[in-house]
Amino acid sequence: MTVTRIVQTKKKLHHSFFFHLAAYYFLLFSCTVVGQVLQKKTVPEEDYHLWSDMVSHSISDRGDWASYSLQYDTADTLFAISTKNRKKYLFPRGKNGVFNGENWFACKQNDTLVLQDLTSGKVNYFPKISSYSFSGDGKYLILITVDQGGSQHLTVKNMLGQTVAMVDNLSEWAWNARKDAIAYIVGREKVQILEIFGNYTKKEIEVFTQGEIKNLSWLNQTIAFIQNSGSSGKIYAYRLDTGKLLSFDSESCSNFANDMSIAAGFGSIKISKDEKRIFFRLKERLSNENKAEVVQVWNGYDKQIYPNLRMYGDVTLQDKVAVWFVDSGRFLQISNREEPSALIGRTAEYALTWNELAYEPQWDSEGPRDIFVTDLETGLKKLLLKAYPGTSVTPAFSPNGKYLSYSIDNHWWLYDFTKGEHRNITENLGVPVFNIDYDRAGKVPLYGIAGWSTQDQSLFVYDQYDIWEIATNGKKKKLLTAGRKNKITFRFAALQHSERSKRDYMDRTNSVLDISQKTLLSAQNTATNYSGFYMYSLKTGVSPIVWEYKRTDRAVKAKNNNALTFISQRFDEPPKLMLINSSGKLTELYQSNPQHKNYLWAKVEKVAYVVNGKSLTGVLIYPADYDSRATYPMIVNIYERQGSFLHRYIKPTLFNETGINYSVLSSKGYFILLPDIVYEMRQTGESAKKCVLAAVDAVLFKYNVDPNRIGLTGHSFGGFETDYIIAKTDRFAAAVSGAAVTNLVSGYLYYNTDSASPNFFRFENHQQRIGKSLFEDLSSYLRNSPVLQAEGVNTPLLAWTGEEDKQVYYFQSIEYYLALRRLNKEHTLLIYPGESHTIIDKKNQADLTKRIEAWFAKYLKS
Question: Which of 26, 124, 145, 387 satisfies CB 3.0 to 4.6 Å to 115 for a cystine?
Answer without folding.
Answer: 124
